């Protein structure tokens, strides 16, 4: 297995839910975690728990993204892992969907992934190694009512990561995509921990373990795609 000790990992959307669980688990495995989100207070608390670095940033702002990369390199001297987890969701019939919500969803879910991947690639190529893990959604592979815009953003994110995987594989860079089903988080104004979500949803820790699995695969193994969803979820 691939040892994560002292690997430098950037995790976006780290203040809550899946991102927080990923940051905590990677820290337990010995990684040096750079936690990224807009909430400075929640990030500082997480940085204390992970003994890592907190960098508040808007993932859709290129200046903020470059600052995250600069801070990671200034503190640790290298970057080994990028976990693109930041995401937002909103659901409505297409005819009622506000255009500004379209912009927000594509900015975070698609542009954020694009900007971070673009920013780390020069360093990954220089060291001839690196691993990008994109956390998309199982709706990147299916469609559903009220999911026109969210699904479109996840299809786009998935296509980008899939194409990038082919572009960089020969240069020693891995790109893996994880497709979670329903997860018990604050996503879309949900309240985690209710009796209903306890029975039907995955836990953030489940997705964190999936991230760990693909990162710890032996160097010659590439886990391109990993679907994880609760057995109760209907397709």
TrEMBL record:
Family, similarity comment: Belongs to the short-chain dehydrogenases/reductases (SDR) family.
Keyword Oxidoreductase: yes
Key words, A-Z: Oxidoreductase
Organism superkingdom: Bacteria
PANTHER family (UniProt xref): DEHYDROGENASE/REDUCTASE SDR FAMILY MEMBER 11, DEHYDROGENASE_REDUCTASE SDR FAMILY MEMBER 11
Molecular function, one GO term: oxidoreductase activity, acting on the CH-OH group of donors, NAD or NADP as acceptor
CDD domains: SDR_c (cd05233)
Organism: Hymenobacter elongatus
Pfam family of the protein (one): adh_short
Name of the protein described by the UniProt record: SDR family oxidoreductase
């Amino acid at each position: 297995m691939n040892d994560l000790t002292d690997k430098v990992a950037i995790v976006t959307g780290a203040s809550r839910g899946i991102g927080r669980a990923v940051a905590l688990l990677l820290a337990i495995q010995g990684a040096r975690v750079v936690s990224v989100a807009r909430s400075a207070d929640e990030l500082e608390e997480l940085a204390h728990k992970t003994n890592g670095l907190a960098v508040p940033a808007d993932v859709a702002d290129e200046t903020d993204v470059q600052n995250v990369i600069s801070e990671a390199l200034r503190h640790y001297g290298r970057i080994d892992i990028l976990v693109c987890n930041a995401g937002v969701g909103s659901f409505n019939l297409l005819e009622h969907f506000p255009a500004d919500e379209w912009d927000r969803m594509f900015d975070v879910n698609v542009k954020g992934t694009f900007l971070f991947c673009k920013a780390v690639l020069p360093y990954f190529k220089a060291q001839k190694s690196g691993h990008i893990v994109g956390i998309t959604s199982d709706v990147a592979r299916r469609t559903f009512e009220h999911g026109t815009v969210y699904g479109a953003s996840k299809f786009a994110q998935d296509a980008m990561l899939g194409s990038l995987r082919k572009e960089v594989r020969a240069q020693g860079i891995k790109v893996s995509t994880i497709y979670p089903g329903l997860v018990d988080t604050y996503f879309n104004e949900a309240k985690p921990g209710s009796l209903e979500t306890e029975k039907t949803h995955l836990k953030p820790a489940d997705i964190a373990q999936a991230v760990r699995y693909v990162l710890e695969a032996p160097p010659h193994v590439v886990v391109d795609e990993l679907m994880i969803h609760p057995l109760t979820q209907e397709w």
